[in-house]
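Q: What structure does this chain adopt?
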Amino acid sequence: MNFAPTIVERLARARADLRMGVPIVLLGPQPKLVFAAETLDVLRLNDILSLDGDPVLAITERRATTLKARAYDGDLARILLPNDVKLAWIQAIADPADDLQNPMKGPLNTEREGDAEGHRMAIALAKAARLLPSAVVINIPNGEKFAAQNGLTSVQMTEAAPHLAESSMLHPVVQARLPIEAAEAGRLHLFRPEDGAEEHYAIEIGRADRTKPVLARLHSACFTGDVLGSLKCDCGPQLRGALAQMGTEGTGVLLYLNQEGRGIGLANKMRAYSLQDQGFDTVEANHRLGFEDDERDFKLGAYILKSMGFSSVRLLTNNPAKVDMMKKSGLDVAERVPLKVGENEFNTAYLATKAAKSGHLF
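A:
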């Protein structure tokens, strides 16, 4: 009998702890104490500084480029904390909100020796927790003992790495009839990932023939566009347009994936919006925050479609990356169906950026 949490469950705890400002311990040849920079507070920063060792602030290469800090580790930089470091300094490095008002944050000295795998994992966990992709990390001598003494979640790095690199398995939870404006013959399917992350949904219109290509759309959640009717994007019109087309044809599947803000979460999306108000486009804003152009995992959509019995789709999208991922995931894309709706005076530049930098077809 063993009631201990699995590595997947420990990773879920780790994400929740980091969101709350609670540190975690990464176990390996050189154990590390990890804090999310976004949720770090003054008391815990003082506790970090009282420990033996040299804490560093791990940031992504995207953020390091903005700050003109050397990323010796390729995809990340380990910034040495000044002796007189203050919480405001750490937050200013992690969050680009005041970059234009206070551009001179350096000189920033970055570590080039030693293994950065633990720092890489710390950033990955911060991203998975929908926080800014930065973490304060310090080596500790006995990770298991330290975690036990302080009641902290510990994660074995070698066990965790494969789970962070792969999509979590999804399991169907429930389905029920749901008449909607687009079609009275609607049915909502709910899928839950094993890793405790957000659930995803499939809205099925009618009863599509599983032996033929189904009209399908992968739609990423957009609270501002889908719910509030934001004019800064075309998400709301795309959602309603796709459902309307499926209703007209009588069948279709819309996958509603909880990957807000291209996978960075609503809080970071609002940070990106603030940067756009400063003059940066949507891709530049993501990079300044430390994210890639697009952090979404479209493989989730392919998995849901296959689990529902579909092997071929007519994909409603303007994004070639979705077509490529469907094919790589074993689904036949019989046709790309354009979805040209929602352009207005507020989002023209946004749509032009998606076309120019992300390859969207309009």
